[in-house]
Amino acid sequence: MKADELREKLMQCLGGPWPDPCDLQPVIRNITIMDGYRIESLTYDVEPDDRVPALLLIPDGVDANNPAPAVAIWHQHNGQ
Q1: Tens digits of per-residue pLDDT, 16-53?
Q2: What are the strands, taking DSSP E only, across 10-73?
Q3: What is the domain partition of the chain in residue ranges?
Q4: Phi/psi at 16 (nearest 5 deg)?
Q5: Which of 16, 24, 35, 46 has the least C-beta neighbours within 10 A?
Q6: DSSP 8-state code for residue 5
């Protein structure tokens, strides 16, 4: 399978082309303090007026002055 065919098939499986980038406009809904980390429940825009819920787990001591690596996981695709 050629690269162009593979790319087209992948886009079909993911529900079509990616939306145009937009400002994420994150909104924190709740913060839960745990032992060694905190959980921030938030929403963000993926397209104008299309918000997605997310959980952000942040270890103690991590901030803008003390960054750490991140792992991002998305579980749903194509509105499912």
Answers
A1: 887 788 999 999 999 999 999 999 999 999 888 889 89
A2: 27-33, 37-47, 50-59
A3: 21-75
A4: 120, -175
A5: 35
A6: H
- Nearest of 33, 24, 80, 78 to residue 54 by alpha carbon: 24
CA-nearest of 45, 44, 47, 43 to 17 is 47
Place of tokens 């790319």: 7
Residue holding tokens 């194509």? 78
Taking the C-alpha atoms of residue 45 and residue 24, their distance in angstroms, rounded to an integer, is 5
- How far apart, in Å, are the Cα atoms of 28 and each of 5, 35, 50? 40, 20, 16
Mean confidence (pLDDT) of the chain: 89
Helices (H), ranges, the chain: 3-13
Q: pTM of this prediction? A: 0.68
Total Cβ atoms within 10 A of residue 67: 8
